[in-house]
C-alpha cells in the first residue's frame, strides 16, 4: 500500500533492536483516513475468504481491525493481555511472548465472542516473530473455529514471523513489507 509506505518513510522512527516506532499514525495517535484505507484494502484481499469475524490483540491492532470489520460487515473481537490470571472457564487463554515488551503475557478471549463454526481473519499492526498471530491462531483452534487468513499492517520481513505462519499453512497478506531497518531507514521488500 503506497500511502502506508510513504507514512512509514516520512514519520517512522527506527529504534534499537529492530523496532519501528510509528506512533504518529498507528501506535498512539491514529490516522483515521489511513485506517479506513487499510480496512478497505484488507476487505478487498479477504472478501472471498468466508470471514465471519475479525480478531486482533489490544491495543494497536484495534484500529485496523475494526475498520476491516466495518468494511466486511462482520464483528471484531480483540484478545486481552493480562500478566497473570486465575483460570476462568468462560475464557480461551494462550500464553504469548511480546516482542516489544520482552515478557510473556496471557491473552484471553471470552467464549461468548468466538463460536466453533466461525472463520476468523486475524489482523495485527506488526508482524515480527509471529508470536502474537500464532497465539491468536491457537485461540481460534481451541474454539474449534478456523483461521481464514492473517492480515498485517507492517511486516518486518527480516524477522521469522512470516515464515512460521506460512509453514503452518496460513495465508498472510501484509500491506507494507520491510526488508531492513539498517542505518535508521526503512527499506521495503
Ligand atoms: P510478534 O508477535 O510477531 O513477534 O510481534 C508482533 C507484535 O509485537 C505486534 O502486535 C506489535 O504490537 C509488536 N511489535 C513487533 N515489532 C514491532 C515494531 O517494530 N514496532 C512496533 N510499534 N510494534 C512492534
TrEMBL record:
Domain Phosphoribosyltransferase, first and last residues per copy: 32-157
UniProt subcellular location: Cytoplasm
InterPro entries: PRTase-like, PRTase_dom, Pur/Pyrimidine_PRTase, Xanthine_PRibTrfase
Transmembrane segments: none
Record's keyword annotation contains Manganese: no
Top EC class of this enzyme: transferase
Residue positions binding 5-phospho-alpha-D-ribose 1-diphosphate: 128-132
Primary location: cytoplasm
Pfam families from the UniProt entry: Pribosyltran (PF00156)
GO biological process, one term: XMP salvage
SUPFAM superfamilies referenced in this protein's UniProt entry, alphabetically: PRTase-like
Sorted UniProt keywords: Cytoplasm, Glycosyltransferase, Purine salvage, Transferase
Catalysis: reaction(s): XMP + diphosphate = xanthine + 5-phospho-alpha-D-ribose 1-diphosphate
GO terms for MF: xanthine phosphoribosyltransferase activity
A GO CC term attached to the entry: cytoplasm
Residues in the signal sequence: none
Entry's EC annotation: 2.4.2.22
Subunit structure: Homodimer.
Protein family (similarity comment): Belongs to the purine/pyrimidine phosphoribosyltransferase family. Xpt subfamily.
Function in brief: Converts the preformed base xanthine, a product of nucleic acid breakdown, to xanthosine 5'-monophosphate (XMP), so it can be reused for RNA or DNA synthesis.
Name by which UniProt lists this protein: Xanthine phosphoribosyltransferase
Amino acid at each position: 500500500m503506497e500511502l502506508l509506505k510513504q507514512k512509514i518513510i516520512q514519520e517512522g522512527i527506527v529504534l534499537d533492536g529492530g523496532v519501528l516506532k510509528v506512533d504518529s499514525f498507528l501506535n498512539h495517535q491514529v490516522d483515521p483516513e489511513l485506517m479506513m484505507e487499510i480496512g478497505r484494502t484488507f476487505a478487498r484481499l479477504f472478501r472471498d475468504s468466508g470471514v465471519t469475524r475479525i480478531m486482533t490483540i489490544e491495543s494497536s491492532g484495534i484500529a485496523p481491525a475494526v475498520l476491516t470489520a466495518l468494511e466486511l460487515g462482520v464483528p471484531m473481537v480483540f484478545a486481552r493481555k493480562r500478566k497473570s490470571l486465575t483460570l476462568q472457564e468462560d475464557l480461551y487463554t494462550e500464553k504469548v511472548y511480546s516482542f516489544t515488551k520482552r515478557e510473556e503475557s496471557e491473552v484471553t478471549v471470552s467464549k461468548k465472542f468466538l463460536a466453533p463454526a466461525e472463520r476468523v481473519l486475524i489482523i495485527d499492526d506488526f508482524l515480527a516473530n509471529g508470536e502474537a498471530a500464532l497465539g491468536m491462531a491457537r485461540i481460534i483452534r481451541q474454539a474449534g473455529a478456523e483461521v481464514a487468513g492473517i492480515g498485517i499492517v507492517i511486516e518486518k520481513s527480516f524477522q521469522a514471523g512470516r515464515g512460521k505462519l506460512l509453514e503452518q499453512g496460513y495465508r498472510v497478506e501484509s500491506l507494507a513489507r520491510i526488508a531492513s531497518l539498517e542505518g535508521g531507514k526503512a527499506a521495503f521488500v
